[in-house]
Amino acid sequence: MNNIKNQDERVLAQRRKIQSDGFQLLIYGLLLAVVIQQFFLQAPPSQFMGEFLCLVGAGFYNLIRNLKLGNGIFVDKKGSYKRLLKNAIFSGIGTIILTIILTGKRDIKDILIFFLTFTISYGLMVFGVYYLSKKKEEKIQKELDMDEDDIN
Predict the structure, then answer these.
(1) If you average pLDDT over every residue of the chain, what do you get?
(2) Residues near 83 by beta carbon (within 8 Å), at least 6 away in sequence
(3) What is the pTM of this model?
(4) Among 27, 28, 37, 147, which is most buried by a count of CB atoms within 10 Å?
C-alpha cells in the first residue's frame, strides 16, 4: 500500500495536473451537452437541468475554494481595474456573438440591451469576486507578516 505522505513532490504535482485537466474536460463536456440539448435538440429544460446544475455548481466550488484559500483569481496585482473592464467587455462581445449564432436574433436594439445588461452585471460580479479575493489575500499576508514579527 502506497503512503501518500511520502510521495515525491514531482509525482504529486503531475497527479494534481492530471486531475485538473480531467476536471476541465468534464466541465467542457457538460457545457457542450447543455448547449447541444438546449439549442440544437430543443430539449425541455428538465432534460438538461442536471448537467446545468453540475456545471454551475462546479464553477461556484472552484470560486469559493480559491477565495477561501486566498489564491489570486486574477493575475493583475497592480490594483488596476483595466483587466477587469477588458474581461467584462470581451465576455459581453463573446456572449453576444454566441447568442446571435445560437438563437438567430438580429434585432440590434435587443442585442444592444442584452450586451449592456450582461456586460454591466458581469463586470459587477467580477469586481465583487476580485474585491473579496483581494481582501482575503491581504488578510493572509497580514497574518504571515505578524508571524514573521513574532519569530524575530
Answers:
(1) 78
(2) 74, 75, 76
(3) 0.57
(4) 37
